[in-house]
Amino acid sequence: MVESDSETTVRMIPHGVGDCHPFFCIIESIRELLNRDGSWRLKYAPREENFVADWLGKESLSLDRGLIVYNEPPPGVVNVNLLIADTAGVACCLS
């Protein structure tokens, strides 16, 4: 399962775009990658329902490292109950 908070992207990938589209090369590369293994599914996940991914993306901007593997949820996710909100599918306020 691949989730994205871009509904437009989730629609463009399965159907493709014209070769004059500015993101043609990127979209086609994604399509080729996903077609190698037909078990992938794309799903639109609104940002308001995916707080952990949003938090991780923002947190990554402040890090000066390459790949980071978490063996447990990072404190920032746990401290503000983002994981619980995502699991329950409820909105959560971030300051």
TrEMBL record:
Protein name: RNase H type-1 domain-containing protein
Pfam families (UniProt xref): RVT_3
Location of the RNase H type-1 domain: 2-59
GO molecular function, one term: RNA-DNA hybrid ribonuclease activity
InterPro entries, per database record: RNase_H-like_dom_plant, RNaseH_domain
